[in-house]
Specification:
Chain lengths: 543, 175
């Protein structure tokens, strides 16, 4: 590996990575706009200029790979590269470039949604001049509506062309281009096209300034006011890592942004996943447990609901009860559900609900959106080990061999099929645990109000078999509870086991379920762990 | 163990017990003040006008077209140590700016009148005025909205608020 020296710090870094990445490994920041690790290098912003020993001029750090020098060309006889990022020449270049980029920038930070997470703001503060010598009128290019989700405020644009390269390389849809040249250059969408691909909002993430803004987040409260929770998007079985930005005072989500995970979504996330919280906000949510009395669902308390569920199910023989899990529930919840079925009631009728609208996968050159919209079908199958199918349960209901059904989760995304509805009408005792009112809850004897994936803890297993943690951001509405708590309480009342937290259930999964052997929340960490990957031995000192 | 020392009240002499010397001593101070100049302000007939820089009730300034100057950047509510400013931004109906406050509320009871909002404002849109007499009968009435704050601007823009209200102006209570 080449031996390099940056600002006097010596280090060996792998050959081939560029100087920005090499400096990052040493904890040195090199400011940059056009360079993005996920996109091709164009070296157009000139912000990352550094001094390289032996070169007559400053070189762009993004375009200069670290390489081994021939033995006779080594600096001081041993260094392959000697780089300076804090030399007076470099500082002077950085100041000049920032002054140049700010020539036509309106500096309307008070009105700009990017303020607070804007690289132009940050770098100007750290590397820039405190004033501009430009004394003419600033250019005012028009504001543009690029597509259904994205606005372009051209005045703020610094023409780094990250967005253009994104549509060329990641989505391959090529809607954007740079119009005109020199001082008249503008980002533009091709005539008769619009930025309407499914990843369009990613361009607002990679935009280093506030030029590209989402219509969804336009003029919402400032970005530093939110609580931030890292979790997994429940939008499809890809399981993109996302950050939920929410407020405690009104218990609402304001924005969802992707977070980097090299194994799953890299830097990106689709628009559907980002806007999914609106779907949950608009749902007629279940806010209390309810029991059907005289044909009407009446609000009740949890204690009474639990007792009614247990007393109701105990009236039937083991093989007359069916338990239906869902790909919308976490691994822990599905595990508890099958435990409730097999150990508490001795029933082997455990099925996985497949009532999900399956769309076609949307495939982009460097991103995939799965058509399987339930986030955890893999995990649910692993946990439930379904012994029957949903069709078997429906047939059993029609024949009268199954009389009671415990239906957990997933009732909101797809309309119930007519024959399912007919069959469920025949059920004598129907427990529905779900997040919102649906035709299913209309038939239910007891409704248990569950939580959305943004409101609970647990793990999802994505389509690749990667087990990832989801974390609670907001609270469930009113009296609704995380589904885990409901199942945990039922298991406790049946004297089967006490879990209290999803972590304990996951430890049991790690001990008993085949592919999950040896996993723990600590092992999953931020990036998750793929099923079947060898689990490192935990030394006794770590325990 | 904590040591406890019990103290007894000192014994008073005969003259101290009849209190009359102390009464005359007090009355003599009163007597000395009778011929002096009176400094009590007969509020509300007389009004005290605070010096410039006084931090009273807030106002939202208007620009030359009479529109609210505020662009809803939330700098004031971010700076506010009492968390009493609530702003909801929206798309401005005017061409010269992007954003304006749809809702701007200040909880005057929660406010500690520190003036940080005024200092944080990049548009000189919020200001503290010389108004100190805004007591009210309910908590709700003391959550001032955008209209009320703009009305405060109209009342105080010429620094004549107290002139309009009081018959007699006392410029400085230390005179």
């Amino acid at each position: 590996m080449p031996l390099i020296k940056i600002n006097g710090i010596e280090a060996e870094v792998p050959a081939g990575i560029n100087i920005i990445e090499a400096a990052k490994q040493l904890g040195i920041e090199i400011p940059h706009y056009c360079y993005h690790p996920g996109l091709k290098v164009v070296a157009s912003c000139r912000m990352c200029l550094v001094k390289l020993e032996g070169f007559p001029k400053l070189v762009p750090a993004c375009q200069t790979p670290v390489r081994e020098a021939p033995p006779d060309r080594k600096v001081d006889g041993k260094y392959d590269m000697v780089i300076s990022t804090n030399d007076e020449v470099v500082k002077d270049a950085q100041e000049s470039i920032l002054e140049f980029l700010l020539l036509n920038h309106p500096v309307d930070c008070p009105e700009c949604d990017q303020a607070g997470e804007c690289l132009l703001q940050d770098y100007t503060y750290r590397y820039g001049k405190d004033h501009s010598r430009f004394e003419f009128d600033k250019r005012v290019p028009p504001r543009k509506d690029l597509g259904p989700e994205v606005l372009l405020v051209s005045t703020r644009c610094i023409l780094c062309s990250r967005c253009v390269r994104f549509t060329q390389e990641i989505t391959g849809t090529k809607e954007l281009f740079v119009k005109n040249r020199g001082a008249r250059a503008e980002i533009e969408v091709y005539p008769s096209q619009s930025l309407d691909n499914k990843l369009s909002m990613c361009v607002t993430d990679i935009c280093p300034v506030g030029a590209l803004v989402t219509k969804d987040f336009l003029f919402k409260p400032r970005n530093w006011r939110y609580q931030k929770t890292r979790t997994v998007c429940p939008g499809c079985s890809v399981g993109c890592n996302v950050q939920i930005e929410w407020m405690e005072e009104d218990n609402r989500i304001y924005r969802i942004k992707p977070v980097y995970n090299e194994h799953v979504n890299q830097w990106w996330a689709c628009d559907d996943g980002r806007l999914l919280y609106h779907t949950y906000e608009k749902l007629p949510r279940l806010e209390y447990p309810m029991i059907r009395q005289n044909g009407e669902l009446q609000r009740t308390n949890w204690k009474k609901a639990y007792q009614t569920v247990i007393e109701g199910l105990k009236k039937y023989k083991a093989d007359e009860i069916a338990f239906i899990g869902s790909g919308f529930l976490t691994n822990e919840e599905n595990y508890l559900l099958q435990k409730l079925a097999r150990e508490a009631f001795g029933s082997q009728n455990v099925a996985l609900s497949d009532r999900v609208v399956k769309e076609d996968d949307v495939v982009y050159p460097k991103f995939i959106i799965k058509g399987e919209k339930a986030p955890n079908v893999q995990g649910a199958t692993d946990m439930l080990k379904p012994s029957v199918t949903l069709a078997d349960v429906v047939a059993g209901l029609q024949k009268g061999t199954i009389k009671a059904v415990f239906w957990a989760g997933g009732g909101v995304t797809a309309p119930l099929e007519a024959d399912h509805l007919d069959a469920l009408k025949k059920a004598e005792f129907l427990v529905v645990m779900d997040v919102a009112q649906s035709p299913l809850t209309e038939l239910a004897t007891i409704v248990l109000a569950g939580a959305s994936p943004y409101e609970k803890e647990g793990t999802f297993t994505n389509y690749q078999g990667r087990v990832q943690r989801i974390r609670q951001a907001i609270m469930p509405p009113l009296a609704a509870r995380a589904d885990f708590e409901i199942l945990e309480a039922l298991l406790d009342l049946m004297d089967v086991a006490v879990y209290l937290r999803p972590k304990k259930a996951f430890d049991e999964i790690a001990a008993t379920v085949a592919d999950y052997q040896g996993m723990s929340y600590e092992l999953l960490g931020e990036l998750g762990w793929k099923k079947g990957d060898p689990v490192p031995e935990v030394s006794e000192a770590q325990q | 163990m904590i040591k406890v020392k019990k103290l007894k009240a000192p014994k008073m002499s005969f003259w101290e017990r009849i209190y009359l010397p102390a009464v005359f001593k007090g009355l003599s101070i009163t007597g000395r003040h009778i011929p002096k100049k009176k400094i009590t302000i007969q509020y509300p007939e007389e009004r005290w006008v605070p010096r410039p820089g006084y931090r009273g009730a807030h106002r939202l300034n208007r620009d030359e077209h009479g529109r609210v100057k505020c662009v809803a950047c939330e700098m004031c509510s971010s700076a506010c140590p009492a968390n009493c400013i609530h702003i909801v931004g929206g798309v401005a109906p005017w061409d010269d700016r992007e954003k304006y406050p749809v809702v701007f509320e200040i909880d005057m009871l929660r406010c500690i009148y520190c003036g940080m909002c005024e200092e944080a404002c990049p548009r000189e849109a919020i200001e503290l005025t010389e108004v100190y007499d805004f007591a009210d009968y309910s908590r709700e009435a003391l959550v001032w909205d955008k209209e009320k704050l703009l009305a405060m601007y109209d009342l105080t823009k010429d620094h004549t608020y107290h002139l309009q209200k009081g018959e007699k102006i006392v410029d400085d209570m230390r005179q």
